Amino acid sequence: MEIELVKKYIKALDFSKVIDQYNVRASMSANLNKLIDEGRINEYAELAVGVHDAGGNYSAREHQLGPKFSLLAPPSQFLR
Length: 80
Known about the structure:
With about 80 residues, this protein is an all-alpha fold.
């Protein structure tokens, strides 16, 4: 990729949105770690596959994988 094209893309970024998205993801990561540390496996698993909150896993939520996982096994089995 040409350096000028890279500069164009960087210039077009709204860094306040980038920072906001980073903060959302950092908070979600902390929440996921807390759930696993507290042994709240079902809540962790549902969040990790985006069942109730896309922030846990944007790709899984986008492709609606949470409900598909739920059909295969209960959330407590996701980590086995």
